[in-house]
Specification:
Distance between the termini of chain A: 31 Å
Strand order of the largest sheet of chain A: 3-7-8-14-11-10-9-22-23-21-20
Number of strands of chain A: 23
Shape of chain A: globular
Largest sheet of chain A: 11 strands, mixed
CATH topology of the largest domain in chain A: BirA Bifunctional Protein, domain 2
Strand content of chain A: 25-35%
Radius of gyration of chain A: 25 Å
Oligomer: homodimer
C-alpha cells in the first residue's frame, strides 16, 4: 500500500520546533496526499488516507442514521437564481464560487451554475416540495458529498484547507424553534461522540460571535480543536437557521391547527477530510502518523526477522498468526524483500498501531515481540496469547490516545485580563480566555482590533458556559458581557 | 422513509404496454428520485434509492479491494491542458464537457477547468509520478465518484442517463499487454459476479465495434442488459487502453532489465446509479419495485392488523418479532395510523421482499401471514418458525429473481439472415443476431445503414464467442467476418 517504496525516509523535522514543516513532511512521507496535481488547492488523496476517511464516513453515516437522518444524493450544481434567494448567504459564499458557464466547444449556458460551496440553496428549493404537513416533521436528511470553494485569498493546506473538500451535510426541518434548538444540541453531542471519543481529537464548542456566523444563520455553534502550532482549527459546526431560509425558499407545512407555517431549519457540516487532517496533525509525533485503532488501514503488521536456517519456520509461524488475527483485524504480513529495520520504520511512519516481530530466538521461546506505536512499548508475548493481547490493546488504544491529548489540551488555556496578556498567550501558542464586551455586532470593533494587532480571532463563548469571572472587556475596557476565547486559527 | 405519504397511489400503467411511462411512474411513486430540480438532466436521488445505491457501492468496493485495487480520491476538475493530451479522448468527450471558467464575481480562470466526464486525464498525469518500477506493478486503483456529461443532444432519463452520474472507475497499470488483457477478463468476471449474481440483472458482454469504442481505447468490452422495452442499456464497460494513454501521459516504469518502458493501461467503469436504474427497470413489475433481498432498504415490514379488543396483544407480538428479526435484517414495524391495505400497497410499491401480517386470528393460531413480494405467495408461518422462514427466503430470493430474469433473457435473441429480418426482430422488442462483414472500421458503413434505417445499433460480438453460423453480412451481403448482435439502445 505504498506509492513509491524506495523514497521513504523518516520525518526529519520536529513537530514541536516547526509544526508547519513537520505537517508537510507527514503528508508526503506517510503518503497521505500528493500535492502535485496541476490545479492550485486541489490535491490527490492517496490510499493510506482514503481508507481511514472512508471508515470515518461510515461511522458518521451510521450515527446520523441512528439519530433519524436519511441519505440523499443531490446535484453538485446550483443555478445562480437559487443561490441569490437568501441575501446573507449569497454575500457570504458568492466570492468563493466556481462557476460553470459553458459546455462543449464554448456553448454558453442560459444561467451560470455554481459548483456547490454548500447545499442549502440546492436542497431547500426541494424541501419546499417535500415538506407538506406536521406529519413529515422532523424531516432529517444528510448528504455525503464534496463541496468547492475558491477562497482565492487564503493559503491552502492539504486536508485542512482545500478548494475541494469532502464532507457530510445534514439539513433538517422542524415544527418549532425548540425542536430546532434540540437538534443543534444533538449535533454537538454527535461531534463529541465521533470527533472526540472515536477520532481522539479534543474539541471545544463555541457559540460564534455574530460577525463570524454561517452566512444566513441565526446562531452558529462550532467546534475548535487546538493544534500543536497553537492555532485552532474549526471542526464540525452546526447552525440554527431559524426561518431565515424557510421564508425565501418557502419551506412550509400545514400544522395540526390547519395553518400553513414556515419550518425551523438547522444544518450541520462535519468536514470529514478536514477532520482527518486535524486528526493526523494532532495525534502524530516525530516518528509520523498515529491513528485511532479503529481507523488504521492496517491495525497490525507482522514483520518476520529472517536468518538463513530458520526462514521457513519463522514465515510459517507468521502466517499462522496472520490467519488467526485476520478474522477480527486488518492485518498485513510484510513479506517484502526489504530489511526488517526499513519495515519497522515505514509502519511507524504510517501509524500502524501494533507491530508483531518474530525471529528465530522468539520461536525458541514460543513468543513474539509486540510493539505499540502509541507508547513505543515492546512486549514479549507468548504465541498462544497473541490474540488476547491484541484484543486487550485494541480496546484501550484509542481511549488512551484521547486521554493523553485531552490532558494536554487543558493546559492550553490562559486567563487574560488585557490585550497584552492575550498577545503573550497567543504568541506562546496558547488560547486566551478573556472578558469581552459583546459577541453581538457591537463587539465587532474590538474583535477587529484583536485581528489587526494580534492576528488572532475571537472564537466565541463556550457552549457549556462557565461562570463569568472577568469584569472588563480585554480590548475596550467596557464591562464584560461575555467570557470569550481568543486564538490564532487556520 | 417516505417523502410525501399522502400522495402515494399505485402504478397505473402496465409495464408491458408502455414501458417508458411505467418507468416514469415507478421512479415517482416508489419515491426513487425527484425530477423537479431546476437544472435539466440533474435529479435528486431520494432515500429509497440512495440506501440501495450505497449498498451497491459497498459491495463493489469490497470486491474491487479483494481483487487488489486500492481507493483514491481525486479532484473533480481537470485542467483543459491535461484533457488535450490524448487526441481521440478529447474528440470523444470535449463536446460534453461542463467548463468552469470563472470564480466569484466573474474573475476569469487562467485556464478552463473541465468537470470530469471521466478521470483518465486527471489520473494518468499523477500515475506518471506514482509508477516507477516493475515493483510497483500491477498498480490498481479505483475512485468512487461522480462524473458530468452535458450530452446536450440526448434525452435524459432518471438513473439511466443523467448529466451527473455516480460511478466507480478503476484504473490500472501493467507491465505487459497480457497482464492488461487478463485484467479486462477479471473486470468482466466482476461484472457478472455483481451485476448478474448479486443485482439479478442478466447481462451479455460484447466486444464493441471499432466505431463504438471508448475514445482512446484499443478495445472496449461492454455489458448490455436488455430492458422490457426491447432496448438494451450499456452497463459496466472495461477498456483495454494499451499504451495509448501511457505514451502521452508518460506513464513509464523501469523494468527488470533496467529499461524504461511504457505501461499497459486498463480502465473499468461500473456506473452504480445507472445499474440501479436498470435493476429497478428490469426487476420491477406492475405493482412497483422488486429488489434483490440484500439491497432492499427494508427487507421485512411488519404490519399489524388491528381490531379494538386485541390491539395491545397484536402490537406486542409484532414488537417481539421485530426485535427477533432486527438482529439479522433491516426490519420496519409499521405502526403508522393508516389502513393495513394502504401499507400493503405502499410496501409492495417500494419492493420490500417480505411482509409479515399479524392479526387477532393469527394470534389465536400462533401464526403470522408472510407475503413474498416476488412471487406474491402468502404463507401461514408458526410464530416460533418466523425467523427460520425469513432465513430460508433470504437465501433464495435473489437467486430465484435472477433465474426468472435469465430465463426470459434467453428468449430475446432472434437469428436473422438479412436486414428485413433484423428490422422485424428489433421492432418486436428483440435482439437480432446476424452475420456482419466486420467490426473493424470497414464495417462502419453497414452499421450506419442499420442506425439510419432501423434506429438500432450493432452492439458488437459476444465475448464468449459462439461458433459462426452466418455466411453473409446482413446488410451488404459480403462474407460475414463476425456474428454480431443488433438492438435499439438507451
Amino acid at each position: 500500500m505504498q506509492e513509491k517504496s524506495k523514497d521513504i525516509k523518516g520525518i526529519t523535522i520536529s513537530k514541536e520546533k516547526d509544526f508547519s514543516e513537520w505537517y508537510s513532511e507527514l503528508i508526503q512521507k506517510a503518503e497521505l496526499a500528493d500535492l502535485r496535481y496541476n490545479i492550485k488547492g486541489f490535491i490527490c488523496y492517496l490510499p493510506w488516507s482514503v481508507i481511514s476517511i472512508k471508515l470515518m464516513y461510515k461511522r458518521y453515516e451510521e450515527v446520523l442514521e441512528k439519530k433519524g437522518h436519511l441519505p440523499l444524493i443531490m446535484p453538485s450544481l446550483i443555478p445562480e437564481s437559487n443561490f441569490l434567494l437568501e441575501a446573507e448567504h449569497v454575500k457570504g459564499f458568492a466570492p468563493d464560487v466556481f462557476w460553470v458557464t459553458e459546455t462543449g466547444d464554448g456553448q454558453k449556458l442560459p444561467e451560470r451554475l455554481a459548483l456547490r460551496p454548500t447545499s442549502e440553496t440546492a436542497l431547500y428549493k426541494m424541501y419546499s416540495y417535500w415538506v407538506r404537513s406536521y406529519n413529515d416533521l422532523p424531516f432529517k436528511r444528510y448528504l455525503s458529498c464534496q463541496v468547492w470553494r475558491a477562497e482565492n485569498t487564503k493559503a491552502t493546506r492539504p486536508f485542512l484547507r482545500a478548494r475541494e473538500f469532502h464532507w457530510i451535510e445534514a439539513h433538517n426541518v422542524f415544527a418549532t424553534l425548540a425542536d430546532a434548538e434540540a437538534q443543534v444540541k444533538e449535533d454537538m453531542e454527535t461531534s463529541y461522540e465521533l470527533c472526540q471519543e472515536e477520532f481522539a481529537i479534543p474539541i471545544m464548542f463555541f457559540q460564534r460571535p455574530e460577525w463570524d456566523k454561517f452566512p444566513g444563520a441565526v446562531h452558529t455553534y462550532a467546534a475548535d480543536a487546538l493544534m500543536d502550532s497553537g492555532k485552532v482549527i474549526q471542526l464540525p459546526s452546526t447552525h440554527l437557521l431559524g426561518q431565515n431560509f424557510s421564508k425565501p425558499f418557502n419551506v412550509t407545512f400545514t400544522d395540526k391547527d390547519g395553518k400553513q407555517k414556515f419550518g425551523y431549519l438547522t444544518c450541520y457540516g462535519p468536514a470529514i477530510s478536514r477532520i482527518y487532517g486535524a486528526m493526523a496533525a494532532i495525534l502524530g509525533d516525530d516518528k509520523g502518523l498515529v491513528l485511532p485503532f479503529e481507523l488504521a488501514p492496517y491495525q497490525v503488521v507482522i514483520v518476520p526477522i529472517l536468518f538463513k536456517d530458520s526462514t521457513d519456520k519463522v514465515l510459517k509461524q507468521c502466517s499462522a498468526i496472520e490467519k488467526e488475527l485476520s478474522v477480527k483485524y486488518r492485518v498485513f504480513f510484510d513479506k517484502r524483500e526489504v530489511s526488517a529495520g526499513e519495515k519497522f520504520h515505514e509502519w511507524e511512519l504510517k501509524g500502524v498501531p501494533l507491530r508483531i516481530e518474530i525471529g528465530p530466538k522468539d520461536l525458541e521461546k514460543e513468543q513474539a515481540i509486540v510493539v505499540n506505536r502509541q507508547t513505543g512499548k515492546k512486549s514479549a508475548v507468548k504465541l498462544s496469547a497473541i490474540s488476547k493481547h491484541v484484543d486487550s490493546v485494541s480496546k484501550e488504544y484509542t481511549k488512551s490516545l484521547k486521554q493523553k491529548k485531552m490532558a494536554g489540551f487543558k493546559g492550553y488555556t490562559v486567563d487574560c485580563d488585557n490585550i497584552e496578556e492575550v498577545r503573550e498567550a497567543v504568541d506562546n501558542k496558547k488560547m486566551a480566555r478573556a472578558g469581552f464586551c459583546s459577541i453581538d455586532l457591537d463587539g465587532a470593533e474590538c474583535a477587529a482590533e484583536i485581528e489587526k494587532s494580534l492576528g488572532a480571532s475571537v472564537r466565541g463563548k463556550l457552549v457549556d458556559e462557565e461562570k463569568h469571572k472577568f469584569k472588563k472587556c480585554c480590548v475596550c475596557g467596557k464591562p464584560a458581557g461575555e467570557t470569550v476565547y481568543i486564538a490564532k486559527s487556520y
